[in-house]
Amino acid sequence: MRDVKAKEADANPAEASAGGFRATRDAHRTEIVEDYVELVAELIETMGEARPVDIAARMGVTQPTVAKNLARLMRDGYVTRERYRSVFLTEEGAALARACRERHRIVVEFLLTLGLDPETAEQDAEGIEHHVSEATLARFRAFIDERATPVQSAATSRATRS
């Protein structure tokens, strides 16, 4: 049975094309938010705090850029902070960071399963993770699971828990 969306795309190719571009623009809008909350979570986990200076260094941007983006994240309810203090995730920000981390992990595992080296897999996952749909992630998971050996499965299980 053909998918309803595929039938609609056949009937109106311009709308189907516009939908794809719209999805990409939406993903680009959320990329910065996702990158920031994921990094803040990582810095808190590894360093005990997330300072704007550390965020700027890790992202390769200036401190004024970080300040602007943190103001946006505060406005949108993802982080809290006081002037000259560390950044903290709200419950919503922490939930988004966990979801981003899981999506990133799945994309990296998929690329490693394809045979890419870890450095390339990590680098490519940074771009792919923001644009991949839940349906595609589900296929990535299935692909990984089909090819996992018992040793890989146990290692993946341990990595997921940590």
Give the topology, please:
Layout: H1 4-11, H2 13-47, H3 52-59, H4 63-75, E1 79-81, E2 87-89, H5 91-113, H6 118-128, H7 134-147, H8 150-161
Antiparallel strand pairs: 1-2
Helix pairs in contact: 1-2, 2-5, 3-4, 5-6, 5-7
Explain how this protein is built.
- The protein has eight helices and two strands.
- By secondary structure, the protein is mainly alpha-helical.
- Helix 1 (4-11) crosses helix 2, helix 2 (13-47) crosses helix 5 (91-113) and helix 5 (91-113) packs across helix 6.
- The radius of gyration is 19 Å and the shape is globular.
Shape: globular
- Determine Rg (CA atoms, Å): 19 Å
How is the biggest beta sheet arranged? 2 strands, antiparallel
Distance between the termini: 41 Å
CATH class bucket of the largest domain: Mainly Alpha
Q: What name does the CATH topology of the largest domain carry?
A: Arc Repressor Mutant, subunit A
Question: What would you say about this model in short?
Answer:
The chain has helices at about 5-10, 15-45, 50-60, 65-75, 90-115, 120-130, 135-145, 150-160; strands at about 80, 85-90. The protein is mainly alpha-helical and about 160 residues long. The chain has a two-stranded antiparallel ribbon.
